[in-house]
Sequence to fold (495 residues):
Amino acid sequence: MSEHFDVLIVGAGLSGIGAAWHLRHQCPGKSFAILEGRDTIGGTWDLFRYPGIRSDSDMYTLGYNFKPWTEPQVIADGDRIRNYIQQTAREGGIEQNIRFGHKVLSAAWCSDTASWTLQVQKASGETVQMSCNWLMMCSGYYNYEEGFTPEFAGRDDFQGQTIHPQFWPENLDYSGKRVVVIGSGATAITLIPSMTDKARHVTMLQRTPSYVVSVPQQDPMAKLLRTFLPEMTVYNICRKRNNFITQLIFKLSRKYPNAMRKFLLKQVQAQVGKDFDMKHFTPPYKPWDQRLCAVPNGDMFKVLRQGKASVVTDHIDRFVKNGILLKSGKVLEADIIVTATGLNLRLFGGMNMTVDGEAVDMSKRISYKGLMFNDLPNMSNTLGYTNASWTLKADLIAEYVCRLIQHMDKTGTRIAVPRRNDPSVKEAPLLDMSSGYVARAAAALPKGADKAPWKLYQNYALDMDQLRNGELEDGVMSFSKPHTAAAAAAQRKAA
Fold:
């Protein structure tokens, strides 16, 4: 027998717990459940357990808009972020609504009943049905079961240990070991200084450098404000300030890329010293074509100056018995190789979707206001910012969905679906970034577009205007009742 809810939320990570909080406060009469494939709260911040795992943006903007971040760390480690999410679930009375060990395999929409029916696999292997009027996808955008690792020739020849950060072995002993970390993104930048406490030496091996920027671990302004202002007031001030700075840097990077490039490289040079070869921190692309990497308190630069770590920019020829042979002919000796080579994108946790019996091909859909898709009824997807903190957008999306549900209740409608009724809308890439994980998945991703409401702004101020304050009945979003939708579907089929 199928259980029915007003709303089903998929994922009990940062987005899912936040969505549940907004739903409980804005739509208090709605029944809901959170379906979580794993056995704990936290999502990304529980899955990743490698040394030094931390946020890559400040917690005043990565935190929820309703719950202040009160810890002194601004760039917080994974344990603290996970505790923050769990505390939110506890305080919001959300924990009892979570179904752990419930992995969604498929979702089928029926216009006649205005509902989604989900096939859900329990941890025991049993498959059950659950249905809902609204489906909120908060499952992130990458594959939890498999990270991205390129094919390295001779991989089996290496006699040491090879590890992907997504599957870090518990109690790994790297004391006195030579460690090579392949990669130049946020994970590698985090791992390098964190492993130098025990490792004999840590080398970051990169093909292409990333832009990096040193950020303070603690916020002296927040510390001062807390002496005479309420915690939530301090949080909101710091949140607005940090969001403004982040957006300013992004806009300046897009408008004046050469000037920003010089600025970013100059601050790195000041950290590593004038004798350091800056080719290791000089990317061939413009700032913000890929995400900037934050270095809290310059910890990465400190271990480079101290000689505990080093950076090598080269191409891999093959793995060999005692390490990695580079194209230059040099061998990097290693006891442990960490492949911090990225993630595999996967929307909706890999579940299959149908609408009235027809399979949904997401590569043929375009994004509506960054949270819904054309001709997909009563379903939202939480996709955070690539140029700012994820949660800024997640909060806005949850608020907007609650507004939609309230509006449907007031108007007596049960179906909300964006219709692509303007032939002049031109498609564009969903994510305007050159990062490898985006490029690898581009063909399977939905599209963006060149004009509102289909344009994905990556801009908090514009999103706040359209999601929090914009008209719900905008001529694109269609509201209807089940029999109306069924009749319209039949007419379209006949035509």
User: Anything to note?
Assistant: The chain has a mean pLDDT of 89.
